[in-house]
Design goal:
The chain is an all-beta fold. It contains no helices and 11 strands. The protein starts with a strand and ends with a strand.
């Protein structure tokens, strides 16, 4: 049973930075790919960034050059470094795990965290 717990959200001024963390337990080979997603009020959840076990990454165009996804496999922790934050980045951010790459494609995530709020 995969459990994901996000932390690190908060309120920040435009141009500021935040680092989100996602602590994972119960990860097996079938849930090898992880990603960050966000959902703003009245909008669909969208994929922000994803990473595989070897460190291969993919990003949404809206965050390229500003956000960096990383993972520490020894600590079973996923990170999202967010720099130069913009008001349009305001959303609930979720981490997700999937056995299908890239996991940011709709419908591929099989395990979700509870989310952490980011307000810019």
């Amino acid at each position: 049973h995969v459990q994901l717990v996000e932390s690190g959200g908060g309120s920040v001024q435009a141009g500021g930075s935040l680092r989100l963390s996602c602590s994972a337990s119960g990860i097996t080979d079938s849930t090898y790919y992880m990603g960050w997603f966000r959902q703003a009020p009245g909008k669909e959840r969208e994929g922000v960034a994803a990473i595989d076990g070897a460190g291969i990454t993919t990003y949404a165009d809206s965050v390229k050059g500003r956000f960096t996804i990383s993972r520490d496999n020894a600590k079973n922790t996923l990170y999202l470094q967010m720099n130069n934050l913009k008001p349009e980045d305001t959303a609930m951010y979720y981490c997700g795990a999937s056995g299908i790459w890239p996991c940011t494609v709709k419908g591929r995530v099989t395990s979700w965290g509870q989310g952490t709020q980011v307000t810019v």
